[in-house]
Amino acid sequence: MFFDDPVLSSRLLTLLTLSFHIIYATIGVGVPLMIMIAQWIGIKKNDDHYILMARRWARGFVVTVAVGVVTGTAMGLQLSLLWPNFMELAGNIIALPLFMEVFAFFFEAIFLGIYVYTWDRFEDQRKHFLLLIPVALGAAASALFITIVNSFMNSPEGFDIINGQLANANPIAAMFTASMPTKVSHVIATAFMTAAFMLASIAAFKLIKGSNHVYHKKALHLTMKIGLVFSIAAALIGDFSGKYLAEHQPEKLAAAEWHFVTEEGAPLLLYGILDENNEAQYAIKIPLALSILAHGLPNAEVTGLDQFPKEEIPPLIIHYFFDVMVTIGGLMILLALAYVIGTKRGWNFVKAKWYRWLIVLSGPLSFLAIEAGWWMAEVGRQPWILRGIMTVEEAATTSDHVGLMFVLFAILYLILGIGTVVVLRRIFKNSPVERELEQLSSQGGERQ
Amino acid sequence: MNLEILGISVLWTFLFGYVLLGAIDFGAGFFNAYGILTGKQRILSKVIQRYLSPVWEVTNVFFVFFFVGIVGFFPKSAFYYGTILLVPASIAIILMVIRGSYYAFEAYGTKGHKGYAFMYGISGILIPASLAIVLAIAQGGFVSMVDGKPVLDYWELFTNPLPWSVVVLAIVAVLYISAVFLTWYANKAGDNAASELMRKYALVWALPLIIAAGGIIYELSFHNEKLFDQILDLWWMFGISALLWVGTVWLIWNRKKYGLAVWLLVGQFAFAFYAYGISHYPYLLYPYLTIHEGFTNPAMAQALVVVFILGFVLLVPSIYLLLKLILFDKNYIKGKTEKL
Ligand code: HDD
Ligand code: HEM
Ligand code: HEM
């Protein structure tokens, strides 16, 4: 059983905690920007609908932040508990961004506390809006710093190993590694994209369920436009990520693409299965596309798995993770593009039920893409925890009880996940949009 | 001052911050549950909610700061503590996760039921207990090295009286700190009933606190003599701490200057906490790990200190804003502003 193996169970527990945390973390990074945009439009246009949008999103947001905070705390501690040898080494080189991240959390938590309790406090709405800026900045900075740590694990730099001992540590160089620019920007762009589609899903769902309130139409309109911008950004930066991989972590790209033999003009494979000779069957083959993804040139040479020792080849399953991410990325662009053009031109299908159902799917699909992306990035780093320097096996704890902890945490996250959904539903059921809008406009009347 | 001393001082200070803020939070949850059981809920829950809602995430960050900081300044501690604490720390995490999230569900969502408040109160007692065990482990005698790897002796840990006394002290301290603070906070809110009730709790827990603290020092005398001797050398710090305790109790007893009483309480715990920290010097984990061997490289240490100072400059005004706009805002404290 895997429970007896501390390495495997540590991996599984990390997989579990991170896959769960990343859902809330993505909301935590993405939604503040959405609230900001809505509130800003509301103030500029003096439109209660957008103000209420900001307010309702913020109300849901505090709940997800809370779960993000506690699961993040769990993750932070688990890193030391499950990977003590790695953290000892990493502490010497990459502790700086982790430390900075704590300040980002601090900043975010303080201003979120203030923001939530100062609605209706200021005569000038813009002052309240200002309080949101540190929240959004703090959240984005958290993502920045933690992703810097993850970049370091993929492309460690900023130190020398002399006789097995760490030397010449340079914490700043360790932060600005080869994978950092693409990784950070891709993570942040996809968080914005996912938050936008998540909110779009909700609005579309309300419209399908018969609420024809213009509030939901405005919300849908706004979030689809934002979603379009960031899904295009995600694809562009994803392309750069591919080029980064081709240059610095070719084994990951090759494994993701089932690219066994180094060749020029390499085709891109989508889906399919591997037969016993490691030949891809039933795959969709796009000629030259892998060379373009990897190097931007149709005839460029792409390193294949034949260049690596067997024990350093990542699990080939990441092919599917990669495909899922890229497929969803492409579909989301099409979906949002069709919506934006369709509403401009007054095409009817954007109001059709089937189309709105597609929009409802966009939120969950974006989360799936986030998960798939991380699985591909992290599993694709196998067998390394610190690429080329320390393997997962060397890093893991020697404690015997990890399997039991896995079970406990699995139950815990299940309860938390259900709890979040139940609580969020209750919050919004108890105060429907229509009633809140009436309250808002009567309040506005008093104020004048 | 060399950097490792600076580093550990900063970390110890943040741990102290967490102990104080956490104690208020944990104790409040307990009193709330107790109030529900004894039918005094309406007196307390409002004040407690008012205080907790905007700050619990900030409190949590103090804790995160500590454990991220200690891995940064003393990477070897990740190896030692990470390996031995898997089970105790995982249990603490699970409790904290339950507590934090359900608090939020309750505060931002809708009212839950009594069973939940009860869980919330109990976890407020169990978390400090499980964290306090780490302090007991740190002062030595429960960890041995097997094949170059640290192993925790659970049997010894559960049968030795020392960890149990530390646990008792932690729980009593939580209740005492929380009661004194809430006496003052309720008083500021003009909520006399709540203030009176909390005053009573504060007085109830004052004596057990001193007895528990004294008991630990006594037990250390035969558990870890070196630590005990260093504690005796710092007798004057513990003495000042005791005097401050007398001051707090006197003020509370006479219903005078609750604000001052809180400050004396902070002073009392600060003296005791730092005195204990200093007598622990130089060990992070007795006798395997000292702050000198465990320290990170100079480049990282300097970078961390610089970031710490910059971070501090950013945080102090923000915290001031939080206190001024929310916690001690006249309307907020009295419950006149509505939330989101
Ligand atoms: C909504 C989510 C989402 C979407 C639509 C995409 N990605 Fe992505 N991708 C991520 C979410 C993500 C991520 C979760 O953010 C990852 C995981 C690790 C990372 O750095 O970002 C990621 C990683 C990641 C990597 C691996 C980087 C590494 O391991 O260093 C590559 C090569 C791409 N992506 C490429 C793409 C391409 C070509 C896309 C085209 C549409 C794309 N991604 C869409
Ligand atoms: C300090 C930074 C990080 C550390 C120390 C770390 C460590 C690890 C380790 C040791 C594994 C197990 C190795 C494996 O099985 O592939 C892992 C897997 C994983 N990590 Fe990371 N990681 C870090 C950052 C991240 C981040 C920021 C994410 C994004 C949320 C992430 C997502 C994942 C996922 C999804 C897996 C599952 C892969 C699997 O199936 O094992 N990691 N991580
Ligand atoms: C190894 C990976 C990770 C670790 C160790 C980690 C650690 C943490 C910790 C300790 C917290 C709680 C801080 C507090 O007390 O306020 C937290 C929350 C948070 N994390 Fe993570 N995190 C990881 C991955 C990520 C990733 C990949 C992102 C973003 C893309 C992220 C974004 C956030 C955000 C925004 C919060 C604040 C809570 C929220 O807004 O939901 N984290 N994380």
Automatic annotation (TrEMBL), chain A:
It holds the Pfam family Cyt_bd_oxida_I. InterPro entries: Cyt-d_ubiquinol_oxidase_su_1. It is found in: Cell membrane. Keywords: Cell membrane, Electron transport, Heme, Iron, Membrane, Metal-binding, Transmembrane, Transmembrane helix, Transport. It is a multi-pass membrane protein. It comes from the Bacteria. The chain crosses the membrane at residues 20-41, 61-81, 93-117, 129-149, 184-207, 219-238, 317-342, 354-377, 402-424. Belongs to the cytochrome ubiquinol oxidase subunit 1 family. This is Cytochrome ubiquinol oxidase subunit I. It comes from Lederbergia graminis.
UniProtKB/TrEMBL annotation, chain B:
It comes from the Bacteria. Its main location: membrane. Coiled coil: none annotated. Pfam families: Cyt_bd_oxida_II. It is found in: Cell membrane. The keyword Chloroplast does not apply. It is a multi-pass membrane protein. The keyword Nucleotide-binding does not apply. The chain crosses the membrane at residues 12-34, 55-74, 80-105, 117-142, 162-182, 202-222, 234-253, 260-279, 299-323. InterPro entries: Cyt-d_oxidase_su2 (IPR003317). Keywords: Cell membrane, Membrane, Transmembrane, Transmembrane helix. Belongs to the cytochrome ubiquinol oxidase subunit 2 family. This is Cytochrome d ubiquinol oxidase subunit II. It comes from Lederbergia graminis.
